[in-house]
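Ops channel
N.P.: pipeline sanity check, posting one input/output pair.
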């Protein structure tokens, strides 16, 4: 059996006399606690359990922070990457597309992409090939998730942006 260098072995010995807990002794890498009497048993077990929990927490590998967007290596997610200038913008737009709750929300993301990403031309934003990439990624859109409806919402969003300028 391979021994973990970060682990601590604890041996607890219990007897039924009325004596108190004996001093801790270390023998060959083990910590030995001698407990005498049933009254001390509950206290020792609680302390040992607490120590085990604290030790387990201390030995836990630190978690590496996960990106906000899980990298699903779906074909559509990978195909979306070619329209984004950087991995960071790809992650952000992928997350925004996935959280869109309506075709209008998705259209806003697409228009934002066409305004900030050099790889996505204005005409591409309404083309079938691009919308076929974005549509399956918009998993939260329950109705109105057709290519023609999304295209119309993109046209509407583009028109609103023109009127604001």
């Amino acid at each position: 059996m391979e021994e973990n260098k970060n682990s601590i072995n604890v041996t607890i010995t219990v007897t039924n006399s009325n004596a108190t807990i004996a001093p801790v002794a270390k023998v060959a890498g083990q910590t030995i606690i001698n407990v005498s009497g049933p009254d001390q048993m509950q206290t020792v077990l609680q302390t040992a359990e607490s120590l085990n929990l604290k030790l387990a927490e201390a030995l836990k590998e630190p978690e590496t922070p996960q990106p906000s967007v899980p990298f699903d290596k779906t074909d559509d997610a990978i195909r979306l990457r070619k329209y984004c200038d950087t991995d960071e913008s790809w992650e952000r737009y992928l997350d925004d597309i996935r959280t869109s709750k309506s075709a209008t929300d998705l259209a806003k993301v697409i228009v934002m992409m066409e305004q900030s990403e050099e790889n996505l031309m204005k005409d591409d934003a309404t083309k079938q090939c691009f919308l076929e990439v974005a549509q399956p990624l918009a998993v939260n859109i329950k109705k109105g998730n057709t290519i023609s409806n999304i295209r119309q919402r993109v046209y509407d969003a583009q028109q609103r942006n023109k009127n604001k300028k």
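N.P.: looks fine end to end. The longest helix spans residues 38-59.
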